[in-house]
Write a structure and sequence with these properties.
Elements: H1 9-24, E1 48-51, H2 69-75, E2 79-86, E3 91-94, E4 102-105, H3 106-119, E5 125-130, H4 137-146, H5 166-172, E6 176-180, E7 192-194, H6 195-198, E8 199-201, E9 229-233, E10 237-241, E11 245-249, H7 254-257, H8 260-273, E12 279-282, H9 290-298, E13 304-307, E14 339-342, H10 358-381
Parallel strand pairs: 1-2, 1-12, 2-5, 5-6, 6-7, 8-9, 9-12
Antiparallel strand pairs: 2-3, 3-4, 10-11, 13-14
Helix pairs in contact: 1-10
Length: about 375
């Protein structure tokens, strides 16, 4: 008998056991916002898709999105635009008027985002607050501090400091970046940053699909934009008149607006500012190719078309049907789910990725099988 068979039985068993453990606990590739290649990039070196008035969804004249916030995040949106109005007791997310569209309290929405971040530990999210009514920033701070989102808040200590990499943000657990356009007081709340100290925006009041611009609209009279991030605002308003002019989102044109029109606008801005945009802001994001363009800018695989099976916290998903010319007609087929695009492995809570290549995996299986045979033979013959 070969000398190999004289190896003590427990040694062979131990070797087999250790070898098999490699299959039970596969090595996970680190994913940052869904892709390993983004981990080494700094926060300001990545392009993120923002949904304009992210909370304003549903069968409503003021809705700018078809899907609730959590489903947007599930699909690959990584920037949220909020505005709030003061209720007697707290802040509510409202579009123009809470009578027209009230998406609930800021606290409740922040809690939903907190729960999502907990379930998706490899994701970085940014919130932009549009402080339309110039509320005291303490109201907004209080909403955050009452919510469960505080442990995830990122603080950028000094304006001239480099931004961390996505991997560094994930390692620290500080994965929620917060900006406000008016009223920031970083001496008291350093984590709620003054947007226009870090970011500038292109014009947002767009009513003509042929006139999207790449000028700096906010902040006004910016002297030096070289080291700033920027937002490309690419959403379209329609105007209706009922004794006064009212601007309403153009749901029926979203597929075109988020298609070639978006690509042309973003390419033009990239050329003018000599760098890619950090944030692309759109309405009805799942219509058109917004997610695909963001993937292209980040140099990651394009998304695949799939049917939505994501949970929505019980909130309705509205079919992107055509809005009538007077903008008051009910949206047809409400509640029917639609096809969406999803960036591959967008959520780092996805299944582990086995980093071993196929040939080495096969070799390990063969070796383990042979050792099992040897062990059994050793037991039978001796």
């Amino acid at each position: 008998m070969l000398s190999f068979f004289n190896v003590p039985k427990y040694s062979v068993f131990l070797f087999i056991f250790i070898n098999l453990l490699s299959f039970i606990h596969p090595i996970q590739a680190t994913l940052c916002n869904g892709h390993e290649s983004l981990c080494s990039r700094r926060y300001n070196e990545v392009t993120y898709l923002i949904t304009h008035d992210s909370y304003a969804h549903g069968n409503n004249i003021a809705a700018t999105q078809n899907e609730p916030i959590i489903q947007q995040l599930n699909k690959g949106v990584r920037g949220l635009k909020f505005s709030a109005k003061k209720d007697p007791s707290n802040l509510h997310l409202c579009h123009t008027s809470c009578t027209i569209l009230d998406a609930g309290s800021a606290i409740d929405n922040l809690n939903k985002i907190s729960a999502w971040l907990k379930e998706n530990p490899g994701e970085i999210v940014t919130i932009f607050w549009n402080n339309l009514y110039n509320y005291d920033i303490n109201y907004l701070t209080a909403a955050y501090e009452t919510s469960t989102v505080v442990p995830y808040i990122y603080t950028h200590e000094q304006q001239d400091h480099p931004w961390p990499t996505l991997q560094e943000m994930i390692d620290s657990g500080k994965r929620l970046v917060n900006f406000v356009d008016v009223g920031a007081d970083t001496s008291k709340t350093p984590w709620l940053m003054d947007e226009f100290s870090f970011v500038f925006e292109t014009p947002y009041d767009n009513t003509n699909p042929d006139e999207f611009k790449c000028t700096i609209d906010r902040p006004k009279d910016l002297q030096n934009s070289e080291n700033m991030m920027y937002v490309v605002n690419h959403f379209l308003y329609g105007v209706i008149e009922i004794g006064m002019k009212i601007e309403v989102p153009q749901r029926d044109k979203a597929r075109e607006t988020n298609g070639d029109s978006l690509q042309k606008h973003v390419d033009e801005c990239s050329e003018i500012f000599q760098r890619k945009p950090n944030f692309i802001e759109v309405d009805f994001y799942e219509q058109g190719q917004a997610l695909q363009y963001v993937a292209t800018f980040n140099g990651v695989p394009p998304p695949s078309s799939v049917s939505s099976t994501d949970t929505t916290d019980g909130e309705p998903v509205v079919d992107a049907s055509k809005t009538s010319p007077n903008a008051f007609e009910e949206i047809r087929e409400k509640g029917r789910k639609i096809s969406h695009v999803i960036i591959d492995n967008i959520s780092s809570s996805a299944n582990p990725i086995i980093t071993t290549n196929n040939s080495s995996l096969l070799s390990s299986i063969v070796i383990s099988s042979l050792l099992v045979i040897v062990f059994l033979t050793n037991n039978i013959l001796y």
